Amino acid sequence: MRILKLNTRLVADTVLGYVLLGAGLVMLVTPGPGLVTLVAGLAVLGRHYRWAHRMKGAVLHRIRDAGTAVRARVTAHRAARLRVDTTAERPEREAA
Q: Diameter of the chain by CA atoms?
């Protein structure tokens, strides 16, 4: 009976994981949380398959790197914009 439960769990997790992976791939090109769904599918598959566990780690690492790069660009852009705004000549206000 225990073997049946384990095999059922394996089949269910495998089917769910591949469904989530497929949905994530579709959502990468259509509106939706594609990366989140891909990582969820890899997490489910990672319970039973090493390749999925390794791939999930690689995907999360790339997501973190991309987030860090975006934060750095936004910070640099804001700093450059502030430098331009503070050095620009401001017109004098006329007294009413």
A: 90
